[in-house]
Design brief:
mainly beta; five-stranded mixed beta sheet; binds (2R,3S,4R,5S)-2-(hydroxymethyl)piperidine-3,4,5-triol; about 5% helix; Tachylectin-2, Chain A; disordered N terminus; about 350 residues
């Protein structure tokens, strides 16, 4: 009787299971995706649906925590096309509400952000003094491929936008492609950017209003690295980067420093587990400090699908701080309980 029941149960699993294909074309039959549309864990590499049932379209993104809500800003992609910056909101980091476009390209062909431009890796900070939300992103001008290599700034009175484009430039005359922002505990903000055809990684302290770089702008290292993501733990700064291989994944590297302007020391590749040497087939974009918890950080990366960028998947993994240096280990399924 027990045996018969077991056979019946095993036979019914393929019908119960909701089959998900990740963009490595591996099929993962996970039963717990079934009925409930409330999400209660992270499943790196799988489709991640928003409140409208659509795969979240916020690539190369970053997150701002503001007054009890997380805001996820990222590239809106239509196939390969760059369609602006999307924003999503969440209270729990699992379930995201689509808040629409925070910044949209414009029809005016004379504008720096005219349709056909490329907006990548948007990051947003809130400036307490000016009470503005300030967005920085990597901008490429329409019809120029990746030659313009500019940083761009937009501001808004609300976290969800709409953001107003302010200007675009090469910081202190330097090329600027992949980028991140970092807000230190003292309220000073920094722009970290790939420069000189991505050979250099530089950091510039921002003006008090966060709208422009100051002259305090320094080379971190010249190792041909991009996709910078910084976090601060135990009074030290940690920087995760990728190599420069277009949309293809490569090996990540972790650097540590006592001071944001360096010197930065390499701690090697922090990734562990299957496909660790290719950053789990993904590329760093941001490290998120989890609000209300001490020493809880989430590594965020993009598993790019260059044939259909909007279908690119998200790899979010907890950063383990128990060892001598931070490690990021692959997990198929995890929840914030790992930080308890
Ligand atoms: C790698 C960068 O990290 C991405 O943001 C994007 O610019 C691609 N290169 C384009 O090939």
């Amino acid at each position: 009787m027990v045996k018969q029941g077991l056979i019946l149960l095993i036979a019914s699993i393929p019908f119960l299971a909701h089959s998900i294909r990740n963009n490595n074309n591996e099929t993962d039959n996970s039963i717990d995706v079934l009925a409930d549309d409330e999400i209660s864990s992270f499943k790196p590499g799988e489709l991640w649906l928003d409140n409208n049932g659509e795969h979240i379209n916020a690539h190369g993104g970053g997150i701002l925590y503001d007054k009890g809500t997380y805001y996820w800003y990222g590239e809106k992609r239509g196939g390969r096309r760059s369609e602006g910056v999307n924003v999503y909101s969440s209270k729990d980091l699992y379930n995201w509400k689509a808040e629409g476009l925070a910044l949209v390209p414009v029809q005016d062909t004379l504008s720096d952000i005219s349709w056909g431009c490329i907006m990548e890796r948007p990051k947003v900070l809130y400036n307490k003094e000016t009470q503005k939300y300030v967005m920085w992103f990597h901008l490429e001008l329409r019809g120029q491929g990746y030659d313009a290599a500019r940083a761009a700034v937009a501001t808004s009175d609300n976290a969800t936008g709409p953001f107003k484009f302010i200007n675009s430039f090469r910081p202190n005359g330097n090329m600027s492609r992949d980028m991140g922002l970092f807000l230190d505990d003292d309220g000073i903000a920094y722009h970290i950017y790939a420069s000189d055809e991505n050979y250099d990684l530089r950091i510039a302290k921002l003006s008090d209003d966060f709208l422009s770089p100051t002259k305090e702008d320094k080379l971190l290292f010249r190792n041909h690295r991009e996709a910078p993501a910084i976090f601060k733990y135990n009074k030290k700064y940690y920087l995760i980067t990728s190599g420069c291989t277009g949309w293809d994944a490569n090996q990540a590297e972790l650097h540590v420093a006592d001071n944001l302007f360096g010197p930065w020391k390499s701690l090697g590749d922090p990734m562990r587990g299957e496909n660790a040497k290719r950053t789990f087939n993904a590329q760093s974009t941001f490290v998120l400090p989890v609000a209300g918890r001490t020493d809880a950080f989430i590594f965020m990366a993009d598993r790019w699908n260059p044939k259909d960028l909007k279908d690119s998947r998200y790899i979010w993994l907890p950063i383990s701080l128990e060892q001598q240096s931070p490690l990021i280990e692959w997990k198929n399924n995890w929840s914030l309980d790992v930080f308890n």
